[in-house]
């Protein structure tokens, strides 16, 4: 069976033939039947160098032996208990010790669940109703954050999805990224804001870096207005380094959300922060939160193995950054766009200058991206299939893979 055959079956079974929208590549997605290291193997017997990496979690690459061993060891003793486990203490201690200001944590099963709970907690703790998010910021697929970034109209939210009640998202306000004055104005005008949630480095509209001083300004402004600051580190946690963006940029939020890498490639999420806030969570406090699969032992084992490995091999962050820099240098001067990177995250934008916010990123030539993306795939490189997703490298992307990625970039950008 080939990918096209699988997709014919899928279209009858699942909306759009997929389990998550961005996978619905036209005219049909390739189906994956195996993976190891930096590579995916497709049902069409192709080997592809993977720069999507499950949309971020697989920082050690596919089927990493140490992570696999940890999962297999856990599976031999069961994979769901419905009780506390020693594993969750180990992972909690590790994450807490890596993030100054993080005093308590709760594990959930996805990044969406983590941001949903963190927002509820911020409201429960502060007694205030509204949240502010960044235009184009993505925090998962739940109602409060599925709000379209309006073109400049940043006061009241407009739902981004049918089925999300306008009433509900009227409590979600928006400001542009990299604009501390807009945040200051928003918080000065409104005294009903419980929290400001943002990705400290935007990873869901391509890759947008914070301007120098932006995150520190955001910290100062939220503190001055008694508004909680939530860093959504679902992508950046352990991706931009041990300690995530909050350590890299030296700014401590009140609450943080995590996912992806902390589960080593198995489903996970977590939220955590200041003890006085976290103690509001049930059963120690009145903010309800619960989950059958929360703290799943297999995910914890995979996450622990991954984070311990990263602790032991911190030099790998530098090696991944060097690899991204090599791609950057090789493509510089080719094509009319611009290359943006941070550590092992990178993106080529079909726009002259690096975008600084959602409005600017929308100026990208998405048709050109589409042609480029298809060219890269035919060269054997799988990039996330959108101008508005970030590319990743793993520790398994060695010299050979980087050379192939670089050569494909040069070729496809020249075309
Ligand atoms: N927050 C951010 C910053 C994300 O990138 C994502 C997913 N890409 C989420 C939250 C949602 O995580 P999940 O898909 O695990 O629900």
Automatic annotation (TrEMBL):
<feature type="modified residue" description="N6-(pyridoxal phosphate)lysine">
    <location>
        <position position="260"/>
    </location>
</feature>
<keyword id="KW-0963">Cytoplasm</keyword>
<dbReference type="InterPro" id="IPR004639">
    <property type="entry name" value="4pyrrol_synth_GluAld_NH2Trfase"/>
</dbReference>
<dbReference type="InterPro" id="IPR049704">
    <property type="entry name" value="Aminotrans_3_PPA_site"/>
</dbReference>
<keyword id="KW-0627">Porphyrin biosynthesis</keyword>
<keyword id="KW-0663">Pyridoxal phosphate</keyword>
<dbReference type="InterPro" id="IPR015424">
    <property type="entry name" value="PyrdxlP-dep_Trfase"/>
</dbReference>
<keyword id="KW-0413">Isomerase</keyword>
<protein>
    <recommendedName>
        <fullName>Glutamate-1-semialdehyde 2,1-aminomutase</fullName>
        <ecNumber>5.4.3.8</ecNumber>
    </recommendedName>
</protein>
<dbReference type="InterPro" id="IPR005814">
    <property type="entry name" value="Aminotrans_3"/>
</dbReference>
<comment type="pathway">
    <text>Porphyrin-containing compound metabolism; protoporphyrin-IX biosynthesis; 5-aminolevulinate from L-glutamyl-tRNA(Glu): step 2/2.</text>
</comment>
<dbReference type="InterPro" id="IPR015422">
    <property type="entry name" value="PyrdxlP-dep_Trfase_small"/>
</dbReference>
<comment type="similarity">
    <text>Belongs to the class-III pyridoxal-phosphate-dependent aminotransferase family. HemL subfamily.</text>
</comment>
<dbReference type="InterPro" id="IPR015421">
    <property type="entry name" value="PyrdxlP-dep_Trfase_major"/>
</dbReference>
<dbReference type="Pfam" id="PF00202">
    <property type="entry name" value="Aminotran_3"/>
</dbReference>
């Amino acid at each position: 069976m080939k990918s096209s055959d699988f997709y014919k079956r899928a279209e009858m079974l699942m909306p759009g033939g997929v389990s998550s929208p961005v996978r619905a590549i036209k005219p049909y997605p390739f189906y994956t039947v195996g993976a190891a290291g930096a590579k995916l193997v497709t049902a069409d017997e192709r080997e592809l160098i993977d720069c999507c990496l499950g949309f971020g979690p697989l920082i050690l690459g596919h089927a990493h032996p140490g992570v696999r061993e940890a999962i297999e060891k856990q599976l031999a003793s069961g994979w769901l208990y419905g009780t506390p486990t020693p594993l969750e203490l180990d992972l909690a201690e590790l994450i807490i010790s890596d993030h100054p200001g993080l005093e308590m944590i709760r594990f959930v099963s996805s990044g969406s669940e983590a941001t949903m709970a963190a927002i509820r907690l911020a409201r429960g703790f502060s007694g205030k109703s509204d949240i502010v998010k960044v235009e184009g910021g993505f925090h998962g697929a739940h109602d409060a954050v599925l709000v379209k970034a309006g073109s400049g109209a940043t006061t009241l939210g407009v739902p981004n999805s049918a089925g999300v009640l306008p009433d509900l998202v009227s409590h979600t306000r928006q400001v542009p990224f990299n604009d501390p004055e807009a945040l200051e104005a928003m918080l000065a005008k409104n005294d009903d804001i419980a929290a400001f949630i943002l990705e400290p480095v935007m990873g869901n509209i391509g890759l947008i870096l914070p301007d120098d001083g932006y995150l520190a300004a955001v910290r100062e402004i939220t503190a001055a207005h008694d508004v909680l600051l939530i860093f959504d580190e679902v992508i950046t946690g352990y991706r931009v380094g041990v300690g995530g963006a909050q350590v890299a940029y030296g700014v401590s939020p009140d609450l943080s959300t995590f996912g992806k890498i902390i589960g080593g490639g198995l489903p996970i999420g977590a939220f955590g922060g200041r003890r006085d806030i976290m103690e509001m969570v049930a059963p120690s406090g009145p903010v309800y939160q619960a989950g059958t699969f929360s703290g799943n032992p297999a995910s914890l084992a995979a996450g622990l193995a991954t984070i311990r490995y990263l602790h032991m091999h911190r030099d790998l962050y530098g090696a991944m950054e060097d690899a991204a820099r090599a791609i950057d240098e090789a493509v510089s001067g080719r094509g009319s766009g611009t290359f943006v990177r941070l550590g092992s995250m990178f993106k080529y934008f079909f726009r002259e200058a690096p975008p600084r916010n959602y409005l600017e990123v929308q100026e990208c030539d998405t048709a050109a991206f589409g042609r480029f993306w298809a060219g890269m795939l035919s060269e054997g490189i799988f990039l996330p299939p959108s101008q508005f997703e970030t590319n990743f490298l793993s520790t398994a992307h060695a010299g050979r893979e980087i050379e192939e990625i670089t050569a494909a970039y040069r070729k496809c950008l020249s075309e």
